[in-house]
Amino acid sequence: MSVSALVANRVSRMRRGTPFSIEGFYTLGTTASVQKAMSRLAKEEKIIRVAKGIYSRPKPLKSIPSIKMIAKAEEVAKTWARIHHYKMVPQGLEAAYRLGMQTQAPMKSIYWTTGPTREFKVGNEVVQVHHVAKNKFQWANKPEGALFRGLLALSPEYTSESSLKIALIRLQLTKGEALKVISKLQKNAMLALWKHKLENVERSLFL
Question: Positive or negative CA dihedral for 152, 156, 157, 162?
Fold first, then answer.
């Protein structure tokens, strides 16, 4: 079977509307032959190039089949980060909003990354990815990480202790887990201004 046929066969098994990287196809042939096969499929509109080296199979909208849905910009950004082994997390204001520590949603969809700053646009969707210092990625996939980044984006002076308690509830932590999280955050030098408020929340959990 030719490289072109092998690529087309594998592409046909990719989930529609979900971004995928060309990197996973290079085992099927030479880099040039795989890229040529992908280019041909894109010209035939069987796939759409949504970013450099990232493609998606268009997905017909159920209510209007003539309209094709592509991958979401957020998923394209996450695929990009995964390919390059970059860390990527919601920016601090987004984390604060999701945890109920502020009521206004951020105007733009922004993520923090250890990789370079760039923008992903798919249709009318735009996601910005900003490079920030590595120390902002502590506990990247853990509850304390989301709370940590939310606090980084807020001022302790204008953030109530009750909103911190709401955040702990939204994280679905047990009392023991919440105490461990607060203890970790208290020891973090980047949250020195939050120490007093965190101590108050910690005491309230024992009441």
Answer: positive
pTM of the model: 0.84
* Rg of the chain on CA atoms, in Å: 22
**Which pair of structure tokens corresponds to residue 193?**
């201004």
| Torsion angle, alpha carbons of 74, 76, 77, 79, to 10 | 120
Q: What is the pLDDT along the chain (207 residues), one digit of tens a residue?
A: 899 999 999 999 999 999 999 999 999 999 999 999 999 999 999 999 999 999 999 987 676 666 677 889 999 999 999 999 999 999 999 999 999 998 888 888 999 999 999 999 998 899 999 999 999 999 988 999 999 999 999 999 999 999 999 999 999 999 999 999 999 999 999 999 999 999 999 999 876
Is residue 56 a contact partner of residue 47, using CB atoms and an 8 Å limit? yes
Contact 76, 54 (CB under 8 A): yes
